[in-house]
Amino acid sequence: MVLPGYDRFGANEYPDTTLPISKPTLIRVKKNDYNFIDASFEWKDIFNNLPSDTLSIFYFDADSVINLTWNRIQIKYVILKRDDLSLIDLESENWTQTFN
Questions:
Q1: Has this prediction a pTM greater than 0.85?
Q2: Spatial distance between the Cα atoms of 70 and 68, rounded to a whole number of angstroms
């Protein structure tokens, strides 16, 4: 499961890399699959409105999200990985992120 660190997704924005107190809407991505995160806004505009030129992407294990309370996930920072990416990073990777 994935959470872009942007307030429209219910997340805190970089440089605040804490998890939000309330459970946000997470995006499910199955193993060996992909999910196209589309929105009614341009991602370049998102970067213009961020506190810094960085977007955090949080990766969660689906079993943890299902079996643990969000409070525990938030307090214990139960994430698999976090990527902090600039606009240049995303453009150089053709807007594609891979979780290994």
A1: yes
A2: 6
Q: Dihedral of the CA atoms 77, 18, 21, 81 (nearest 10)?
A: -40
Cα gap 23→20, rounded to integer Å = 7
Domain of residue 18: give its range. Answer: 2-92
How open is the CA angle 20-70-60, to the nearest 5 degrees?
80
Tokens representing 41?
């806004």
Residue 58 lies in a domain: yes
Q: Which pLDDT tens digit goes with each residue over 56-97?
A: 999 999 999 999 999 999 999 999 999 999 999 999 988 888
Residue 29 has pLDDT above 90, yes or no: no
Tokens linked to 42: 């341009």
d(C-alpha 58, C-alpha 38), whole Å:
17
